[in-house]
Amino acid sequence: MYTHGHQPAAVTQHAKRTAEDCAAFARHVIGTDSQILDVGCGPASITVGLARWAERGHVTGIEVTDEILTTAAATVAEAGVGNLTLAKESVYELPYDDGTFDLAYAHQVCQHLSDPVAAIREMARVVRPSGWVAVRDSDYSTMRPYPSSDEVTRWREVYRAVCRHNGAEPDAGRHLYAWFRQAGLPQVQMSGVVQQFWTDETRRNWGRSWADRCLSTAFARQAAEYGYADRDELEWIAAGWRAWADNPDAYFHYVHGQALAQVA
Ligand SMILES: C[S@@+](CC[C@H](N)C(=O)[O-])C[C@H]1O[C@@H](n2cnc3c(N)ncnc32)[C@H](O)[C@@H]1O
Asked: What phi and psi values does residue 66 have, to the nearest 5 degrees?
């Protein structure tokens, strides 16, 4: 079960991401003719950036539902990139020959998988020798607001409980090093980035997005269904997010883990 869901409140937030922000740690291994696989490409806002970097190469973006692939197709059409195809596939069973790609990339995907090691192993399989696997995931336990907020603290607890109930690891960023090694990629280059929200625009966007997501997405439904938070508590958490978002002194940060490894 995918914790966020593909409802507008979640997808709109994901669609703000860019290759420049989210794939900078792999930029130096991408050439203009690279063949790239973008696993769990979501709304494809990063994917189109990868396609521009590999302007004489090709990017394949894969997703698991028609719903998000429709959104991704609209992003690709609007961007006008011709070297990008989308396919409905799961990372666990990629329909590509061994060694097909120069780079397999996954952004904020492994944190939603029940077997991230199998996923990374399958990504490595479809990469050519000396090609690369690049994965970036956040670490939800590092998510902290100023000023501290009982509602945001409770949101973090509920989110992490729902994610774990789904068999996934919300603090994935700190697990990537071990997962790569377990997947047969021992030479891992780890890096980290602190994500921050403090400008009026980013603070309001992040806080209001989570207020909406606590009420209108698969996360809200699962939190109630699994018994971690009822509707009244979710309304209380959402109000806390809105109050945080409207406070001009408010600030938020968390850590992304980034793993990059060359295939033998
Ligand atoms: C948090 S979103 C990230 C989307 C995009 N990479 C981004 O950062 O904007 C995670 C995505 O992983 C996809 N996903 C989940 N399980 C998957 C699987 N087995 N194979 C491929 N994608 C999967 C979900 O459908 C979802 O769109």
From this structure: -65, -35
Q: Which residues pair with 261 in a beta bridge?
A: 133, 188
Q: Which atom of ligand 1 is nearest to the CA of 65?
A: 25
Report the residue count for the chain: 264
Phi, psi of 84 (to 5 degrees): -140, 125
Domain boundaries, given as residue ranges, for the chain: 8-262
CATH topology of domain 8-262: Rossmann fold (3.40.50)
Pocket flag, ligand 1, residue 57 (CB < 6 Å): no
Q: What is the spatial distance between Cα 143 and Cα 260, in angstroms, rounded to a whole number?
A: 23
Ligand 1 pocket test: which of 22, 48, 68, 109 has the largest number of ligand atoms within 8 Å of its C-beta?
A: 109
Tell whether the model's pLDDT for residue 10 goes beyond 80: no
**Per-residue model confidence as pLDDT tens digits over 197-236:** 999 999 999 999 999 999 999 999 999 999 999 999 999 9
46 lines ligand 1 (CB under 6 A): yes
pLDDT in tens, 228-244: 999 999 999 999 999 99
Q: What is the pLDDT of residues 136-189, one digit of tens each?
A: 999 999 999 999 999 999 999 999 999 999 999 999 999 999 999 999 999 999
Q: Is the CB of 112 under 6 A from ligand 1?
A: yes
Q: Does the Cβ of 213 fall within 6 Å of ligand 1?
A: no
Instruction: Say what the pLDDT of residue 1 is.
Output: 84
Residue 4 beta carbon below 6 angstroms from any ligand 1 atom: yes
- In angstroms, what is the span from residue 246 Cα to ligand 1's centroid? 30
Ligand 1 touching residue 37 (CB < 6 A): no
